[in-house]
Design brief:
- The structure is a single chain.
- By secondary structure, the protein is an alpha+beta fold.
- It folds into three domains: 310 residues, Butyryl-CoA Dehydrogenase, subunit A, domain 3; 97 residues, Butyryl-Coa Dehydrogenase, subunit A, domain 1 (Orthogonal Bundle); 114 residues, Butyryl-CoA Dehydrogenase, subunit A, domain 2 (Beta Barrel), CATH 2.40.110.10.
- Helices cover 48% and strands 11% of the residues.
- The chain contains 22 helices and ten strands.
- The protein has a four-stranded mixed sheet. A four-stranded antiparallel sheet has the order 2-3-7-6, covered by helices on one side. A two-stranded antiparallel ribbon has the order 9-10.
- Helix 6 packs across helix 9 and helix 18 runs parallel beside helix 21.
- It is globular and about 80 Å long.
- The C terminus is likely disordered.
Length: 598
């Protein structure tokens, strides 16, 4: 019998909305009402967003950066001097001292201008040495890190190795010197953000401690003998982002610059926490920025294009494409708000939610990019330079397309993230269920208030989410009862499908703001097809087509549109599988953008 798997992000003292979701419950006492940024903090963020926009507009041409793959001379120093490499650093250490969400807003605004520049800022804020200060006790190491933070040194974390980041082992080794006063680090690191320009790096390495190997974090001054930037790494997108392959050849690091702490999942606890929070800035923020820009491109296109005298915006399919993209952008923003604002006014554990946000953001962003590319057709496929040569508006669709694809890979490739999510969070909820699994009364009370506040359409979406969540939890519980965890975890295809379904569950209440209903309807249509891969099938009667033209005995909706058994009644309200088109206003009937926030 295998060891019962445990969720490494679980905190017994704090509830987690995502962990509850994995058990088949929606904790509305946690989710209702949805967190909002406080007015005073929002005003600070508004000023910071306006400031970074002016800064970048004056100093950087994003198309030139994409073409030359080289940042302008002195640009990184200008970023540092303006405090954009210390967004989260406390003011007493020379930083801007922004809240988590304001730092996210600033990175998002930078990414709207240039994703590579935003990545420099995000890597420093999320994975720079400043991120480790909370875990470092008073002493020589803390003073070393503080000096670099106060000096504004560019920094980062060097963890990934040529064998791949998914490995639990680290081949970079730390060998103690004969006198025990220091360690000699040897190995290679690859895909290190800010690595080629960093003054100090947090480097993971394996140390032999007694009869076992342990992974430790060493703080390495990059001017040390034996440290070398082997090469600058160039990607298909993110042109100009300083990313490198690094070599350490017996680099001497004093013993006091080793961070000693209890092991966490795969790595040290501090490194794990830094990576989880870091993805919000490195992945989710650029995903939101790219999605918003694509929406701007799409609106511009449909306003100036017509087919046989009818504006593109007059076609229902175009309206649906725009509405779906708007809803996906809304979902990315809502997930970011939940993950970075919720802890300010409620007691909640957000670690699991932040893990999930990586795929929610990057995959939704990719859908928006694909949708926009399809809408713009040849103009979308054409390069910005080509459009400029013929006098057309040079929308950089190609650049966003390449950048967005990288976000699905960075921080953990999307399908593997689904696999890890299933193993680390979804199934531990069923192999080791809590002793008291009753729904708290506060959750039921919040649900009643929510139902009263929702529109009829969103009440239908709410019922669908509740039924789907409970049904998927029953399926996972059945698998956990029938299979040992080691046996089940070898079926990675099934785990990936289950993890993907669970990750896309709603992390905000339906109908809270414009866009929720469209998002919920689109999600239901996608799940109607994809869910059959992981949920048991049941016989269902044949149906006519949407217009009722095909014989009932022979007609079937396309595979991606067919409803799951038991959900047909709810899905009729959205038009999926209905015998006639639903009445009422068309989705996305107005091209006027909804309230969007930076």
């Amino acid at each position: 019998m295998s060891k019962i798997p445990q969720n490494p992000f679980h905190d017994p003292a704090l509830p987690s909305a995502y962990e509850e979701l994995c058990r088949g419950r929606l904790r509305w006492d946690l989710l209702y009402s949805f967190p909002e940024q406080r007015p005073a903090d929002r005003a600070i963020g508004d000023d910071a967003v306006a400031e970074i926009r002016r800064f970048l507009a004056e100093r950087l041409d994003p198309e030139a950066l994409d073409a030359t793959r080289t940042l302008p001379g002195g640009f990184v120093e200008a970023l540092r001097s303006a405090g954009y490499l210390n967004l989260l650093t406390a003011p007493d250490l020379g930083g801007r001292g922004f809240s988590l969400y304001n730092a996210f807003r600033v990175v998002t605004a930078a990414a709207a201008h240039s994703v590579p520049v935003a990545m420099i800022m995000a890597a420093q804020a999320a994975l720079g040495v400043d991120a480790y200060l909370e875990a470092i006790p008073p002493g020589p190491l803390r003073e070393f890190v503080r000096r670099h933070v106060e000096a504004g040194s560019v920094s980062g974390t060097a963890d990934t190795e040529p064998m791949g980041a998914a490995n639990q082992r680290r081949w970079t080794t730390a060998e103690p010197t004969e006198d025990g006063a220091a360690f000699l680090l040897s190995g290679e690191k690859v895909y290190i953000g800010n690595g080629p320009i960093a003054g100090v790096l947090a480097v993971s390495a394996t140390v032999r401690e007694g009869d076992r190997d342990a992974i430790r974090i060493f703080f390495v001054d990059t001017s040390s003998p034996g440290f070398r930037v082997k090469s600058w790494i160039e990607f298909m997108g993110l042109k100009g982002f300083p990313n490198g392959a690094l070599t350490l050849d017996r680099v001497r690091v004093p013993r006091e610059r080793m961070l000693v702490e209890e092991p966490g999942f795969r790595l040290t606890r501090s490194l794990g926490a830094a990576i989880v929070r870091g993805r919000m800035y490195l992945i989710t923020a650029p995903s939101l920025a790219i999605s918003r820009r694509c929406l701007d491109f799409a609106r511009d296109f449909v306003r100036r294009r017509a087919v046989d005298g009818l504006q593109l915006g007059g076609y229902e399919i175009i309206q649906r494409m725009l509405a779906t993209s708007l809803a996906d952008a809304f979902a990315i923003e809502a997930v970011a708000e939940w993950c970075l604002l919720a802890s300010a006014d409620r007691e909640v554990n957000l670690e699991s939610d932040r893990v999930v946000a990586k795929n929610v953001g990057s995959v939704a962003c990719w859908r928006v990019v694909e949708n926009t590319m399809a809408l713009l057709a040849a103009e979308g496929f054409e390069t910005a330079a080509s459009k400029a040569r013929r006098g057309a508006r040079p929308l950089p669709m190609e650049r966003l397309f390449r950048d967005a694809r990288g976000l699905r890979i960075s921080g953990g490739v999307d399908f593997q993230m689904d696999n890890w999510t299933a193993q680390l969070m979804l199934f531990p909820a069923h192999y080791a269920p809590p002793a008291d699994d009753a729904e708290p009364p506060a959750s039921r009370e919040a649900l009643a208030r929510l139902r009263a506040a929702l529109s009829p359409a969103n009440r239908a979406h709410l019922r669908f989410v509740q039924e789907w969540t409970a049904r998927l939890a029953r399926r996972c519980g059945d698998l956990a009862r029938r299979h040992d965890s080691a046996e089940l975890y070898r079926r990675d295809g099934l785990l990936i499908a289950l993890g993907a379904r669970r990750q896309r569950a709603v992390l905000h209440e339906p109908g809270a703001r414009p866009g929720a209903a469209t998002r919920a309807a689109a999600r239901r249509r996608r799940r109607a097809g994809a869910g059959r891969r992981v949920l048991p099938r049941r016989p269902r009667p044949p149906r006519g087509d949407v217009a009722g033209r095909a014989p009932r005995a022979r007609a079937r909706a396309p595979a991606r549109e067919r409803p799951l058994a038991g959900e047909r009644r709810a899905l009729r309200r959205t038009g999926t599988g209905a015998r006639r088109p639903p009445r009422g206003p068309r989705a996305g009937g107005s091209l006027t953008p909804g309230r969007e926030r930076t």
